[in-house]
Amino acid sequence: MSLLCEAWDFFKILLQRCPNNGFEEVAQLSIFYNGLKHDTKMNLDATAGGTVMIIDVEQATRIIDDLALTNYQEQHGTS
Length: 79
What we know:
Blueprint: H1 4-17, H2 25-34, H3 38-48, H4 57-76
Helix pairs in contact: 1-4
């Protein structure tokens, strides 16, 4: 999956299918982040003003949600 929006949607579906996975939210964020391509990580980090992995989980999730939405809109020509 090369698109952030597709990767984020897929990851959220996996989490919904296994709600009792035993991973804390910060570990889930780390798993998602570490599975991304370098360029996508750089975009997330730039948006976070550093590295997305040092901000709180809620803020990091909002950043990912916002960038995934923007990515989706760019790919589908919507706004």
